[in-house]
From TrEMBL:
Keywords: Membrane, Repeat, Transmembrane, Transmembrane helix. GO terms for cellular component: cytosol; endosome; membrane; trans-Golgi network. This is Solute carrier family 66 member 2. The keyword Transmembrane helix applies. InterPro entries: PQ-loop_rpt (IPR006603), SLC66/Scramblase_ANY1 (IPR052241). It is a multi-pass membrane protein. The chain crosses the membrane at residues 15-36, 48-68, 74-97, 127-149, 210-232. GO terms for biological process: phospholipid translocation; retrograde transport, endosome to Golgi. It holds the Pfam family PQ-loop. Its main location: membrane. It is found in: Membrane.
Length: 241
């Protein structure tokens, strides 16, 4: 009888572990669903900072190479792949909306090598080129120094440092606009819930210290953005969708 009870408990824990892993893999992409829908509905991408995509693309590409040097939980690796695809989808939508709303015929491309328009390019292909070039650069450097433990740890620290800054571009854009118009509050609430969950996950699974620091910083930035929502007022300027 006791053996059967222990087996049931073990099965339950296994199921919970699989569920938690599933949430870790796909949960990070969920907050962008309401923002994606908001941009589609309004045909306006100005309220969403595409530099959030830049931060997450860099962070997750670096995290993949960190995994090559120091294998951590597989769900965290898969999460990076899902997040890269999600950010590319967000960029594709923003580029499409901006292209349809563009009044000026002047376009900016990555090949212009003009830093004034970095990450403000006119074509989605430019963002793909950047990601491809950055990935090649990371691959070259990583495989060159893969056996150097200090480099691997530094790579992991850089990855989580960028990820920790996830909400910073949105925070700064809200501050500069003195408004949160066009930003999905649901997205930020889901950010906060997700960051609390994953930080707890990191603690339970004794993930590398870099991940714990990342989670804590992200929660603080999420709270700061929510304070902006309250400060600027939930009037007609704010879309809850």
């Amino acid at each position: 009888m006791e053996q059967g009870s222990e087996e049931n408990m073990e099965s339950s824990w296994t199921l919970l572990s699989w569920m938690a892993s599933g949430v870790m893999v796909f949960g990070g992409a969920v907050p962008y669903v309401p923002q994606y829908q908001e941009i589609q509905r309004t045909s306006n991408a100005e309220g969403f900072s595409t530099r959030v995509c830049l931060v997450l693309l860099i962070a997750n590409i670096l995290r993949i190479f960190f995994w090559i040097g120091k294998q951590f939980e597989l769900p965290l690796l898969l999460q990076s792949v899902v997040m890269i695809l999600t950010m590319l989808a967000m960029l594709h939508l923003c580029c499409s909306i901006q292209s349809s709303n563009r009044v000026s015929t002047k376009q900016h491309h990555i090949t212009d090598l003009d830093l004034r328009y970095f990450w403000s390019w006119s074509s989605f292909e430019d963002y793909l080129m950047f990601c491809f070039a950055f990935t090649l650069l990371c691959a070259f450097i990583t495989f060159l120094f893969l056996d150097w433990l200090l480099f691997v740890e530094a790579l992991g620290s850089q990855a989580v440092m960028f990820e920790a800054m996830l909400g910073l571009p949105q925070l700064l854009q809200n501050y500069n606009n003195r408004s949160t118009r066009g930003m999905s509050v649901k997205m930020v609430l889901l950010w906060t819930a997700g960051d609390v969950f994953k930080t707890t996950y990191f603690v339970i699974n004794e993930s590398p210290a870099q991940f714990l620091v990342c989670g804590a910083v992200q929660i603080l930035i999420d709270i700061a953005i929510l304070l902006q929502v309250g400060y600027y007022g939930q009037d007609s300027r704010i879309k809850l969708g």
